[in-house]
Amino acid sequence: MGWMLLILVLFWTVMLIILPQLYMFDLSFHPNLPPPEMGGPKDHHTLENYKYLVFGAPGNEDGYNKVDLLVFVRTLIAAAFVTVIDLMLCYPIAYFLGQTKGGGFIRILVLLLIIPYWINEILRAFAFRIIFGDSGVINEFLILFSVIDSPIDFIRANVALYAGLGYAYILLMIFPMYNVIESLDRNQIEAARDMGASWVTIHRRVVIPYAKPGIASGCTMVFMLSAGALAAPQILGGPSSLWFTQLVYQWFNTGSNWTQASSYAIVLLGACLVIVLTVMRLFKVNMGDIGK
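^ that's the sequence the OP posted. Answer follows.
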């Protein structure tokens, strides 16, 4: 039974993850050719797809397509912003859940956190669009109490997008930290309090160093998923905002240019891996710590 399970896991990993990624990586180095010419003399390895992202269309000195590069950088910055916001919101919740006594009460709180995620992600994104719309709950509430005179365009300002992304992956930030903080010996906190340490010092010197694996795990998952999100940017993004995954989607579907789309996808994957591994190195956390 154990060997059968191992074979199924290996089959899933190799056939559905590794091989498709390798095929896409190889495809990104080929020119976009019609099917009859694929594999012919014109089909050769080239860096033109990657040059297109950085410099624009070949032969164009102005590089009009550099907007794609700006979208790529903006997407990574926005994903990092969403990750930081989630960390700031979820750390107090994870600490409260991990250090509060009373199993029944904690189970109810955890259940209340999980129940909204029984709803499909796309439906949740549309719910956020309704909440942050011109005639949505927030604008109607602010107008009712005379806080504002006219509706605020939360969609154009990307407030709805960041809120939707942050909420979409909030559990992936809470539970890794909660699992680590729950195992923290409360006597360490009590000892620090007895020695006169403030709550800020206790968290900075005791709790956060102990919870680093959970923090790193949560931040890694939220950043990677935010950078690779598609549904939330499509539904909640403003008319002037564009997510890099939307460009990948357009190349694959609207543009029917799979080679260009593959290069964009590989660049996004590589950039996310480099950023995550760099942050892990800076905070002295390895994969073994995250996997605990």
